[in-house]
Amino acid sequence: MLEVRDIHVSYGPVEAIRGVSLDITPGEIVALLGANGAGKSTTLRAIAGVTPPSSGTIMFEEHALHGLSPHRATSNGLVLLPEGRELFAQMSVLDNLRIGYWTKRKDKAQYHQQIDTMMSHFPILGERKDQAAGTLSGGEQQMLAVARALMPAPRLLLVDELSLGLAPMIVNELYEILRNVNADLGTSMLIVEQFVHMALENSNRAYVLSKGEVVMSGSSAELLSDDSIIATYLGGEATGSTEPEPPRRRRRVER
Length: 255
Ligand code: ATP
Fold this sequence. Notes:
By secondary structure, the chain is of the alpha/beta class. The protein contains 10 helices and 10 strands. The strands form 2 sheets. The chain has a 6-stranded mixed sheet, with helices on both faces. The chain has a 4-stranded antiparallel sheet with strand order 2-1-4-5, with helices on one face. α3 runs parallel beside α6 (138-150).
């Protein structure tokens, strides 16, 4: 479904991504892990067309995405849920959802179906549909951000730091909803998450980035069962860690 090959991204003199390759097959939830500054957000932004790679290729369902604008990427069935939600605080829940449907606005019949689908997966948004987004709790705002990203019915959702600023219980609830969406709608997902255990428990496979390179990949169950991986590549228990020294050898768990 998604085939990323050897992409490089630089911010001026800073080479943030150095030859990242990864794959996602239909229906998979894949986690992208790594310490702060490893290049996770940059990888998501590169796939979504926000920060185009200077070299390498990104194929999505056999269409080349590299060089396309974020708008074109969304039209192709891929949506980025950025870190920090970016809701329209003064606008109602319903209007935020409507904006999420913008790229598909000509398909009016499908719009109502999508609203119904979102209300069934996020019942609290139905209860709050006329409320201004800015008055929702942090967890509800994140639910709205996820629902808005799902409005155009993407086949691949890129999720950056779902847990940002939220209590673990709320994050668990959000991941449960994402898993249900994945099971019911077949939406594939690439998730960047600082809580490593939570990411591995809610994904099929994972890639670990260090200093802009993939240093490990494997099934989430395998990665979860090896504590040394978290200690070596993720600087201990995942939160607030900074980029560790690069490992001397690459190790591949799967394939
Ligand atoms: P975090 O978990 O802290 O968000 P990350 O793994 O998502 O980290 P990125 O945000 O992709 O990492 O950053 C990768 C590298 O690129 C870092 O060294 C960062 O300082 C640098 N970087 C990111 N965005 C910019 C920017 N807009 N301008 C310059 N350098 C940047």
